Amino acid sequence: QVQLVESGGGLVQPGGSLRLSCAASGSIFRINTMGWYRQAPGKQRELVAAITRNSSTNYADSVKGRFTISGDNTKNTVFLQMNSLKPEDTAVYYCNAVVTTMTIMTRNYWGQGTQVTVSS
Q1: Which one of 4, 58, 69, 114 has the lowest number of neighbouring Cβ atoms within 10 Å?
Q2: Residue 73 has pLDDT above 90, yes or no
Q3: Res. 104: pLDDT tops 90
């Protein structure tokens, strides 16, 4: 089993910054991809940013130039630096990881979610 623990959400004013962290632990053989998704009330969950084991990154168009994803392979941790936050960034942010476990099964795992609220 694999667990993802997120931290760093909160309330911030428009134009402010937040940094989210997500640490993976458990029966991990290899983490293939880690990323962040978000879901606003009444909307579908959407990809925000993802990073592969080889450090290739992918961003939603709406966050390009404002958000930066990074990872620490030695600690199985991923970070999302969010700058110039807008009210439309308000959502629950979920950490996601595609993990090959010690039993050599590859599965998709989710964190519990952390609330990000951008409001004055």
Answers
A1: 58
A2: no
A3: no
